[in-house]
Structures are given as structure tokens and as C-alpha cells.
Amino acid sequence: MDPRIKSILVSQPKPETERSPYFDLAQKYKVKIDFRPFIHVEGVEVQDFRKERINLLDYSAVIFTSRNAVDHYFRMAQESRVNVPDSMKYFCISESTAYYLQKYVVYRKRKIFFGKQRFTDLVEVMKKHKDEKFLLPCSDILKKEIPEQLNKNGFVFKEAILYKTVCSDLSDLENVFYDMLVFFSPAGIESLFINFPNFKQNDTRIAVFGPTTRKAALDYGLRIDVMAPTQNAPSMTMAIENYIKESRKKS
Questions:
Q1: Quick check: 12 and 37 in contact, CB under 8 A?
Q2: Looking at the structure, do residues 175 and 146 belong to the same domain, yes or no?
Q3: Which domain holds residue 32?
Q4: Nearest partner of 183 among 221, 212, 158, judged by Cα
Q5: Confidence at residue 70, expressed as pLDDT on a 0 to 100 scale
Q6: Which residues are within 8 A (CB) of 5 and not within 5 positions of it... i.e. 6 or more apart?
Q7: How many CA atoms lie within 13 A of 11 on its CB side?
Q8: Do residue 61 and residue 81 come from a single domain?
Q9: Which of 22, 63, 106, 157 is the most buried (most CB within 10 A)?
Q10: What is the tally of structural domains in the chain?
Q11: b/e map 132-151, b = 16+ CB within 10 Å
């Protein structure tokens, strides 16, 4: 097996900015890096949502953990012909998600609060608004820690599944081979095997981000070559760079 990495497929959309560390990595080590989402989001149909008997206006506050949650909350409001009142409070996982609300509301005239990227930080902000009834727009794949923390802290809330994570069609990649595949979620690993049930890892290096993705890879019998985050590599690009350096020492 040639230890050198010459091509990498990242199972995410291509970064929108040219300042991504992936592009720096590709240029520095003369590695081909392609991007392809292995999963994508599809909105729940309004008639299916109505079966859940959730009235958007029964809630005085909304928790947004992603831009997808923002998009599908306001999509569902529009399709349900619900006018979201100006008094609605919005609690966002990060400042960037909060600013994304400008796509739908006049930012300076709304009650918008945000955390520092971790859900535990947002919970601390929410504790000052314990009397609110919270709606949590989410996908069918929700991190367990989110409802666990809300329950632990005594919040009154309701999960509303407004979008679903589904496998993308990767059939055009059947005869395309990369030295490394990079995954960020268990759903991405699952998509690989749904698209290619007979996938054999052989010399392909597998990079995974986070413990749940690691577990999914191991459950499918994959050999993990690159793991992030770690103490020496808090980001995936740093972990890949460390691996490339080591592999080139051996070649």
C-alpha cells in the first residue's frame, strides 16, 4: 500500500469561502480534495406535520440549533398560513445562526438570544426565560443531549420534526476511488453502505469526526485511520494534515 495520500473525498458540501483550511491543505500538500454531501435534508410535508397536532402559535419561544431549523420553521409557518407574532422569542445556538434570522425577520425589532456554539451555553441563556413554552424545530436525527439538557433544567418544550436527513444518491461515484474518505456523522457512514452495500475498505483510509461517527464506522467494520477531534488535532483538517505528514515520512 502506498502510504501517500493523493486524493480525498469530504462527505460535506464544498465550502462557500475560498478561505477554507481544506483549500490550504490541498495547495500545501498537492492533494486533490473533492466535496460531496453523502446526506441531505428534505422538508416534512405540511399535511404530515399537521398529523402531529402541533400548533406553532402555542409556543412563545423557538430554539434554533441550525440554519436548517430556521429555514424549515418559517417554511412550515408559511405553508400552514401561520403569522409568527413579533413577540416571538428566538434562542439560537450561535451568533451566526441568530444573524441568519435576518432572512425572515427584522433583526433589530425581535427578541433574539444566542449562545456560543455549544448547547450548554444556550441553556444558560435560556435559564433567564424559564416561563416560556419552547418549540424545538429539528430533524429526525436529534442529538440526545439536547432534550436531555432541556428536561434536566425543567424547561417546558416540544420537539417538532420539520425536516428529515436522507441519504444522497452517490451512484455516479461507483467507479471513482479516493485514498481517503472523510465522515462527520453516523448518517454519512450509513449512506456509504446504502449506496454501496458491497463496499470494501481495502487501502482506503477512513477519517471520522466525533465519537458517534467513530462508533458507526466501527459498527460497519471499517478501519479508522484518522480521528478528530483530539488534543493534537481539534479540527478535521489538522488531523488529516498530521496523517499526511506521517505517511510521507514513511514513503
A1: yes
A2: no
A3: 7-38+170-250
A4: 212
A5: 97
A6: 29, 31, 179, 180, 205, 240, 243, 244, 247
A7: 26
A8: yes
A9: 63
A10: 2
A11: bebbbbbbeeeeeebeebbe
Residues 49 and 144 in one domain: yes
* Domain containing residue 215: CATH number: 3.40.50.10090
Cα–Cα dist 200/163, whole Å: 32
For residue 94, give the amino acid letter.
Answer: S
Q: Both 46 and 154 in a single domain?
A: yes
Cell numbers describing residue 84? 409568527
Do the bridges between strand 89-92 and strand 61-64 make them parallel or antiparallel, or are there none, so unpaired? parallel
Which of 145, 165, 185 corresponds to the end of one domain? 165
